[in-house]
Design goal:
The protein has 13 helices and 13 strands. By secondary structure, it is an alpha/beta fold. The protein has two domains: 150 residues, Aspartate Aminotransferase, domain 1; 235 residues, Type I PLP-dependent aspartate aminotransferase-like (Major domain) (Aspartate Aminotransferase, domain 2). A seven-stranded mixed beta sheet has the order 2-8-7-6-5-3-4, with helices on both faces. A four-stranded antiparallel beta sheet has the order 9-10-13-12. β3, α6 and β4 form a beta-alpha-beta unit. α11 packs parallel to α13. The longest helix is centred in the C-terminal third of the chain and has 22 residues. It is globular. The two termini are 32 Å apart.
Amino acid sequence: MKFNSTKPSFARQLDAQDDLSPFRDQFVIQDPTLVYLDGNSLGRLPQATPDHMKYAIEHQWGERLIRGWNDGWIKKPAEVGAKIAEIIGARPDEVIVCDTTSINLYKLALAALQARPERKTILSDALNFPSDLYILQGICDLMGEEHRLDLIPSDQSLSVPLENCRERIGDDTALVTLSHVSFKSAFMYDMEKVTHLAHQAGALTLWDLSHSAGAVPLELHDWDVDLAVGCTYKYLNGGPGAPAFLYVRRDLQNKLIPPIWGWFGAQAPFNFDLNFNPARDLTRFQISTPHMLSLLAVEPALEIILKAGIKNLRQKSIQQSEYLIYLAREFLFPLGYELGSPTDASERGSHVTLQHPEAYRICRALIEPQETDIRVIPDFREPDNVRLGIAPLYTSFLDLHQAVRRMEQIVKEKEYLQYSEEYLSVT
């Protein structure tokens, strides 16, 4: 993708030509001087969500009280899951919303290991999100010394070549579990090919979709993916701490035994049987009463995504990330910045990472400027990564232009020296 101008007028021209630009107005943007590039950590608030939640609180809870469960609450985990299923290429009965990403990962990983008792190896990679690795380490500790977690090394902390996966998947591999899009570099696996490699070796696959659901097209069912988890507060814009989702391919749902037996996973929860009898479908992976208010808050943004179309969002994401990298080459690379993401768009998710030795203080200067009205919110990831999240529903080309020019100014004028090197609690 070629660009021929670094002027802000060209960015405005790209915005004017963007068919998706009207969707920006469907999100709350209270400060027009704020450039928000952290939608890959927490998505913006949809305009429709406050009224949606007001109705949920005042009518569904306030007026209907306990009757709300029979009015439709009880079906919401599956109904909202079906909408997510449409976004990630699954069947409606293959996705359910419940718990957190880490808890869902624990449930599905342990169920997968129990389904392959003769195999003792979990395969992941050095790019995976640490929380995922902690969960897997804890499972190995629980299962005993025979079980082990094997990590595929990365290529300069940016990517993992397919050949590296092929070499590490073996006869002892029970489960291959990876983040589809890496949280630091945005490296994106070819999910279909890796899943095929795992299946050839007799292993199951479990994917973390936290940085890809709502950002890149997926075809979980057609690619024969076994299991997946993901969060709803990033590109799905469900709000802070919104409940996660899990996917189990239809033919596996009756074969896998959930490791946590909770009453909402029972076949007839309101029979109150003293012995657990798991549901015959995906609901067996529920544990307890759904977090209804936070679950309801997920709905409005899903409708926006479905209307915009995930393929359209991906097309714009690629165009915007290419434009951002183009600007970085012109303005930032001469100042010591380096690209911390794959150059090939087919191997890159919807955020771009730029590396600099002063990355943390650059982020502080972007977020808390002392001499300009323009504020930019990215995020920092150890040791030297500035992550710039592109959420095509509301990120504009002008946002990207302003962010790059501020990053240029901060280093050129050494503004970062005015900020402490001491980390804040959340980076």
